[in-house]
Known about the structure:
CATH class: Alpha Beta
Strand content: 15-25%
Order of helices and strands: EHEHEHEHEH
CATH superfamily: Response regulator
Amino acid sequence: MKTVVVIDDEFGLAEAITALLEDEGYRAVMATNGRQGLELVEEHAPDLVLLDYMMPLLGGREVLERIRARDAERPPVIVMSAAARDEVRAACPGAAAYLTKPFSGATLLQAVQGAIGGPA
């Protein structure tokens, strides 16, 4: 079972994404800030990280940079944001995908499957 870490300061959205992924057969864990998210990445060695771009404490750009700086396996990262897509791409180069909020569950699942395949 593939593991996805969901990092988003909007609790309701993080919870909904986590539930959707679990319903599709993925193992999903969530964090509501960047610091907690980095801890989950270290703890779970996920196959994928879904990362909000704009968060307090530690923003998406900083979280992505810290994930990339790790010596261990670097999971692909999908960046989610309500900010302009070009701004997010410039600030977070190398992400597996960029999702503009709001997005549908189908769009999210398509991006996840494109990055890591199915849950098995």
